[in-house]
UniProtKB/TrEMBL annotation:
It holds the Pfam family DUF2231. This is DUF2231 domain-containing protein. Residues 22-185 form the DUF2231 domain. The chain crosses the membrane at residues 28-51, 72-95, 115-135, 155-176.
Length: 201
């Protein structure tokens, strides 16, 4: 974004280009990703439970099938809630981003393309995660309440496809930080000709 506008927005931005020391978005993304991954993984484990039963028996583990589905449901629900904050913080930090304009990422994209794809991808993922949580809720509390396998195979397949989209989204995000130096303190100091070690002194 235009640096003059950024100055108007936040007269007190620090060395990382943000009005606070540690970017919020990169912390929240790991909750979005982690909670969703665990949610789908535990539902897969619950769905395949009959095949795993002899292993649990051999290991003397008292695993109960419904507990796997509890973990699956609550993690996807938590991911849906937290992702609103992930996306909101992403928009705010994108607004204050001043990426290196000449750099091309490992995927051959410039900063602007990467930001646009990452922004659109983020909104798409939020929609999909919320949709998955609603779908999961219907399976748990209505459609499959009495069934041993609480989740439909189509739900698990959709979850795996979303995990692939998350890989693309996460890599674009990593390019923003790692290759374009967005909100990376050392990167900003080097670009402005300062010594990153100076802030430690
Ligand atoms: C589900 C949604 C999203 C996921 C999973 C996600 C994931 C990521 C990841 C993994 C990073 C790299 C973090 C790091 O370097 O440690 C990142 C960085 C970034 N993302 Fe996202 N992102 C999402 C949505 C968005 C949205 C909607 C925007 C803005 C429109 C956005 C803007 C940014 C920015 C500006 C960065 C650079 C670091 C920063 O300034 O915070 N993200 N994202």
């Amino acid at each position: 974004m235009n640096t003059e506008l950024i100055d108007q927005l936040t007269p007190s931005v620090g060395a990382n280009g943000l009005p606070y020391h540690i970017p919020i978005h990169p912390n929240l993304v790991h909750l979005t990703l982690g909670l969703f991954i665990i949610g789908i993984a535990f539902d897969i484990a619950g769905a395949l439970f009959p095949f795993q039963r002899p292993i649990f028996k051999f290991l003397a583990l008292t695993a109960t099938r419904s507990n796997f589905f509890d973990v699956g449901w609550y993690n996807v629900l938590a991911s849906a809630i937290i992702t609103f904050f992930t996306v909101a913080s992403g928009f705010y930090e994108m607004l204050l981003a001043t990426p290196s304009p000449d750099v091309v990422s490992a995927w051959g994209l410039h900063a602007l393309d990467t930001m646009v794809w990452h922004g659109v991808g983020g909104v798409l993922l939020l929609t999909l995660i919320v949709g998955m949580a609603i779908w999961r809720g219907f399976q748990r509390y209505a459609w499959r309440k009495e069934r041993g396998r609480q989740v439909q195979w189509s739900y698990l397949i959709a979850g795996l496809l979303i995990l692939f989209l998350m890989f693309l989204q996460g890599t674009l995000g990593a390019h923003l930080g790692g290759e374009f130096g967005v909100h990376v303190t050392a990167d900003y100091l080097l670009r402005s000709g300062e010594d990153p070690n100076s802030i430690l002194k």
